[in-house]
Amino acid sequence: MANDRLIITRRGFGIGLVGGAAALALPLSAAALTADQAGALVSRAVADVNSTINSGKSASAMYGDFERIFARYADVPAIARSALGPAARGASPAQLSAFTAAYQGYMARKYGARFREFIGGQIEVTGARALKSYYEVISVARLRGQAPFDVRWHVSDRSGKDLFFNIIIEGVNMLASERTEIGAMLDRRRGDINGLIEDLKRA
């Protein structure tokens, strides 16, 4: 795990992930998941992001890579439904599917735009612990010339796979942050989910 590194800046990491992965519904059970497996999932995700950053690809190509990484390691349907909040209960299955797809692309572009600003640093996974119905993977972000800061990933196997559903950076919970942001976008559309979907596609 110690060799898995992500090039970042404190500013870029904080801003980029505040709009990042989130799901308010707690996992049902982590009985089949172990601390080692949860830690390994986060280590693989960090390694894949690091590889993309250092690939030398164009911005558009990197965004595609980030979308695949997000789809591979995050519980995207749960994250998207949580971000939509109470409006998800009134959405049709087709709207939920379209929103999830648009949200996944939106998140990939948001991550990618910030990752391009990152300079020398690394994230190191240091451990994992059980928290009721899921695991929290603890990591430390170390930046050149700045104090290390705490990054925590919440991982479950609720979907049938080991996936992360939340990230907490220096105590800032992505669950609440993302729901607030998407909720504000939906308010500007006067509750029109189809309009929100189109906004996410263009963002």
Description of the molecule:
This protein has 203 residues and is an alpha+beta fold. Helix content is 49%, strand content 19%. It is built from 7 helices and 5 strands. A 5-stranded antiparallel β-sheet has the order 1-2-3-4-5. Helix 4 crosses helix 5. The longest helix is centred in the middle third of the chain and has 23 residues. The protein is globular, with a radius of gyration of 16 Å. The N terminus is likely disordered.
Care to give the gist of this entry?
The chain is an alpha+beta fold. It has helices at residues 10-18, 35-53, 59-73, 76-84, 93-115, 174-188, 193-202; strands at residues 121-131, 134-143, 149-156, 163-169, 172-173.
Overview features:
about 200 residues; alpha+beta; about 20% strand; globular; disordered N terminus
The overall pLDDT, averaged over residues, is 83
Kindly report the spatial arrangement of strands forming the biggest sheet: 1-2-3-4-5
Shape: globular
The SSE order reads: HHHHHEEEEEHH
- Percentage of β-strand residues: 15-25%
Cα distance spanning the termini: 34 Å
Q: Largest sheet at a glance?
A: 5 strands, antiparallel
Give the % helix.
40-55%
Work out the helix count. 7
- Rg over alpha carbons: 16 Å
Q: Structural class given helices, strands, pairing?
A: alpha+beta
- Spans of 5+ residues with little confidence (pLDDT < 50)? 2-9, 15-30
The beta-strand count equals 5
